């Protein structure tokens, strides 16, 4: 490349990029891509991050009315990390730094199924795709030896449509910029309008990626009440489906939410959205909005060459015998919209809410043979009317008639509230309702020790 700096420091590479590469790539972008641009984050920390972080070279959306001098993590579509030395390619520090940026993107854009990222270490480029089960890396390329692949990758990033870049195709933006409409391509579901502000979201990569929204029927007036909760998550494929358990609940059962609907999320082509088949099983060809195709050949995970000297971190990153965990994206709609347990108005209110939740727990076990297995402070909510409280989050629930372990890799429960016998290492299939009652006790104990009668921290 003409003008490539002799010393590939970040500032020099950025100057070269915007002098040489940007004029080549940007004029060739189609009209559909004019709302995105490559920008350096500069010395300013990006807004709304979970920590003080900034990427080096980002592909961002040009959102109307945004501060052009300081970017928001919600604008970032693709993130890049620049290093001066080619020897840093594939090293722990570069990978983990990139993963931290991706964590911020997943936190502010929880509707993303995956995030594309890249490193440019000297003249060596490597592309990554992060999803809810980890990351897959391409083989490295030398941008001088493979200039067309380098340009093709940059152009491909900028011309991908929303679904190709990783956004959930069942969610679309409304024009009022205050709410987003949910236009499902999945089966047996009506349209709902959801509040843009998240009820729950997670700043993490390899996780269920749970996100919850307030919702109401789409035809409801703008000033109507939010009466539903829509919950999206990437459940482990070997886990039972939460909606299958809640579908057994009769309306009006004390201590439990009202089930409305659930299903797996489907792509616009009708494919079930999962990590193995949909996210990682897709073609690596990048089709621009103009119909042109650019191929960036990704290698399977085992070809991600480890560095010559393995640190404790890289020993874990490069153990190729550890296969990724398949996750399936599911959606659940339920009612009512509860309040956090710490919003209780008196100790009596608190105890009544816990009592109702215990009754709901008992009903699920006695009537339906379901053990919850994750009773915690955040999984007991206050009912907006009556009764006083209800139990949610049956993500880790099991049927007592289940013949064997699920095969999930992790111990089940929220650590602070787990029963002593479970923490002591009993087999996971031995988790029984008594352990959950012990967890209810720890929830009460936690509140009594750490919060006053108004729910404020002591």
UniProtKB/TrEMBL annotation:
Coiled coil: none annotated. Residues 243-458 form the Protein kinase domain. Transmembrane segments: none annotated. InterPro entries: Kinase-like_dom_sf, Pkinase_fungal, Prot_kinase_dom, Tyr_kinase_AS. Residues 285-306 are annotated as: Disordered. Pfam families: Pkinase_fungal. Its EC number is 2.7.11.1. GO terms for molecular function: ATP binding; protein serine/threonine kinase activity. PROSITE patterns: PROTEIN_KINASE_DOM, PROTEIN_KINASE_TYR. Component of the EKC/KEOPS complex composed of at least BUD32, CGI121, GON7, KAE1 and PCC1; the whole complex dimerizes. Component of the EKC/KEOPS complex that is required for the formation of a threonylcarbamoyl group on adenosine at position 37 (t(6)A37) in tRNAs that read codons beginning with adenine. The complex is probably involved in the transfer of the threonylcarbamoyl moiety of threonylcarbamoyl-AMP (TC-AMP) to the N6 group of A37. BUD32 has ATPase activity in the context of the EKC/KEOPS complex and likely plays a supporting role to the catalytic subunit KAE1. The EKC/KEOPS complex also promotes both telomere uncapping and telomere elongation. This is EKC/KEOPS complex subunit BUD32.
């Amino acid at each position: 490349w003409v003008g490539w700096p002799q010393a590939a420091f970040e500032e020099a590479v950025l100057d070269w990029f915007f002098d040489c590469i940007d004029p080549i790539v940007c004029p060739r972008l189609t009209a559909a891509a004019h709302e995105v641009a490559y920008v350096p984050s500069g010395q300013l920390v990006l807004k709304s991050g979970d920590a003080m972080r900034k990427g080096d070279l980002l592909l961002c959306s040009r959102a109307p009315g945004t501060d052009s001098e300081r970017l928001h993590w919600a604008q970032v579509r693709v993130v890049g990390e620049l290093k001066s030395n080619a020897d840093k390619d594939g090293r722990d520090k570069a990978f983990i730094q990139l993963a931290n940026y991706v964590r911020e993107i997943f936190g502010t854009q929880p509707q993303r199924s995956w995030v594309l990222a890249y490193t440019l270490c000297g003249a060596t480029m490597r592309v990554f795709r992060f999803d809810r089960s980890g990351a897959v890396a391409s083989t490295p390329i030398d941008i001088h030896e493979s200039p067309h692949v380098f340009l093709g990758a940059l152009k491909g990033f900028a011309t991908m449509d929303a679904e190709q870049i990783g956004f959930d195709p069942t969610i679309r933006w409304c024009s009022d910029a205050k709410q987003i409409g949910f236009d499902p391509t999945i089966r047996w579901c009506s349209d709902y309008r959801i509040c843009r502000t998240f009820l729950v979201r997670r700043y993490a990569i390899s996780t269920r990626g749970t996100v919850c929204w307030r919702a109401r029927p789409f035809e409801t007036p703008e000033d109507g009440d939010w009466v539903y909760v829509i919950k999206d998550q990437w459940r482990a494929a070997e886990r039972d489906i939460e909606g299958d358990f809640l579908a057994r609940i009769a309306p009006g059962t004390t201590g439990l939410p009202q089930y409305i609907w659930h299903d797996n999320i489907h792509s616009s082509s009708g494919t079930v959205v999962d990590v193995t088949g949909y996210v990682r099983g897709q073609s690596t060809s990048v089709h621009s909005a103009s119909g042109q195709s650019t191929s960036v050949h990704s290698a399977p995970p085992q070809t991600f060459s480890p560095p010559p000297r393995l640190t404790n971190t890289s020993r874990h990153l490069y153990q190729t015998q550890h296969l990724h965990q398949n996750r399936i994206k599911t959606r659940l709609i339920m009612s009512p919209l509860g309040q956090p347990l710490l919003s209780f108005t008196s100790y009596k209110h608190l105890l009544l809410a816990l009592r109702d939740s215990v009754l709901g727990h008992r009903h699920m076990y006695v009537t339906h043979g379901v053990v919850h297995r994750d009773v915690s402070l955040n999984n007991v909510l206050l009912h907006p009317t009556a009764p006083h409280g209800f139990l949610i989050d049956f993500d880790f629930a099991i049927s007592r008639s289940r013949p064997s372990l699920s095969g999930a890799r992790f111990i089940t429960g929220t650590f602070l509230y787990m029963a002593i016998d479970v923490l002591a290492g009993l087999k996971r299939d031995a988790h029984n309702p008594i352990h959950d009652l012990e967890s209810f006790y720890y929830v009460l104990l936690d509140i009594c020790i750490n919060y006053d009668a108004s729910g404020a921290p002591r």
